[in-house]
Amino acid sequence: MEKTAALASDILQGIGGERNILRLENCMTRVRVEVLDDGQLDVARLKNLPGVSGYVKQGAQHQLIVGPGKAAQVVDAMRALMGAGGAGMLDDAERTKAQAKAKYKAPMSDALRQLANVFIPLIPAFIASGLITGIINILKRPDIVGDFATQYPNMLGILGIFGSAVFAIMNILVGVNAAKVFGGSLAMGGVMAGILSSPQLAQITLFGEALQPGRGGVIAVLLVVVLMCWIEKKLRSLLPGSIELILNPLLTTLITGSIAIVALQPLGGWISDAIAHGASLAIDRGGLLVGAILSGTFLPLVLTGLHQGLVPIHVELVQAHGYNALLPILSMAGVGQVGAAIAVLMKTRNARLKKVIKGALPVGLLGIGEPLIFGVTLPLGKPFLGACLGGAVGGALISYWKVATVITFGISGLPLALTIVTGKVMLYLLGYLIAVIAGFLFTWLLGFNDPEE
């Protein structure tokens, strides 16, 4: 914990102190900071801090890669230091002014970041659900566990409830998170999602057709909640304070709910169907080529932050088909990088680089690739290309073999094997091995300039 506190203190100093912080948060591997004045950041110092594997700037957000689990610990330590300092971050007035000035700097990047922030809090639930479903698949196989399924049906039933619970309330969770991200009332976001998912919709006929509960999935929920947040803010500015508390939620529900059922849910359904069928068709018909392109270009997408836009696609695939054929393909990008890192480890004479690789490889095998990207392959250049090419080989095979998983997102690497659909696990592991070998060979042949100590 002393190392974590020291790193938190060093990061605070490198970003110009707590008074320069507009927003502080973390994902699984990154400390994410938005600041008042970029000029106060000492980026060179931040990059060289022990424990920081890399630095990325996406829009107004500065991201420091510190590793899985550690990101949350560092952010907690930073907040503790800021609280102990007494001065704290900017007050609300200063924060609002600074955010207004930075509002239009990078609209695309900011939109993708907001989209990711809706789904990132759901990752632990998806991981648990996917792994439990994988355990159930194993327990149902007589060749592995004998007649366990017939002897303990109640246990399998309970595990099934545990594994499917997140999908039963998926739309509600997305509605609440979307309202939080877009500045609306959390309860109202849940209510909007509840309206779209209500079984009673099936009893209502509109324009000659019966309504479909849950149509459009998370896409429809996102559209409706964004509209709800806008209407709620508009009414808050128009209604007198004495009646705003009563009339705002009433009018927001009536207006948004009506527009949702008449227009936004059908629109969301059309978009959802297009995404699910389009992605499935591309993978089914594209075979080797589509798999190679998807996996080979995924690491560059991660660098730009555009991979965040794929999250709703993963969710839609599982909601529409019960499985996700895209995630195993994309996961090969990180696997190719493992092979590239092993090649660098065997070739380099730089002791510090060897230490970085040895520390990052274990989490790379588990599917968390940022430490290897920003600490090893990307700075060296050619190994990053070798990783992309190795991932393309693995992605092509996974696509050709039609390997799919039962999880939406959140797991990659070796742990993903536990969630692969029955009959495809060995093919996934074979693709994993080939991607590692391909990444190794491409990197070994391309070579790199070995950095001096």
Overview of the molecule:
By secondary structure, this protein is mainly α. The chain is 68% helix and 6% strand. It has 20 helices and six strands. The strands form two sheets. The protein has a four-stranded antiparallel sheet. A two-stranded antiparallel sheet has the order 5-6. Helix 17 (351-365) crosses helix 18 (370-380). The longest helix has 56 residues, at 241-296. The model is unreliable at 90-106 (pLDDT under 50).
Q: Outline of this structure?
A:
By secondary structure, the chain is mostly helical.
List keywords for this structure.
453 residues, mainly alpha, four-stranded antiparallel sheet, two-stranded antiparallel sheet, 20 helices, 68% helix, globular
Helix content: 55-70%
Number of strands: 6
Range of strand content: 5-15%
Q: Give the CA-based shape.
A: globular
Biggest β-sheet: strands ordered side by side in the sheet: 1-2-4-3
State the oligomer. Answer: single chain
Distance between the first and last residues' Cα: 29 Å
Low-confidence regions: 90-106
Average pLDDT level: 84
Q: Supply the number of helical segments.
A: 20
Instruction: Let me know the largest β-sheet.
Output: 4 strands, antiparallel
Radius of gyration: 24 Å
Element string (H = helix, E = strand): HEEHEEHHHHHHHHHEEHHHHHHHHH
Helix and strand content put the structural class at mainly alpha
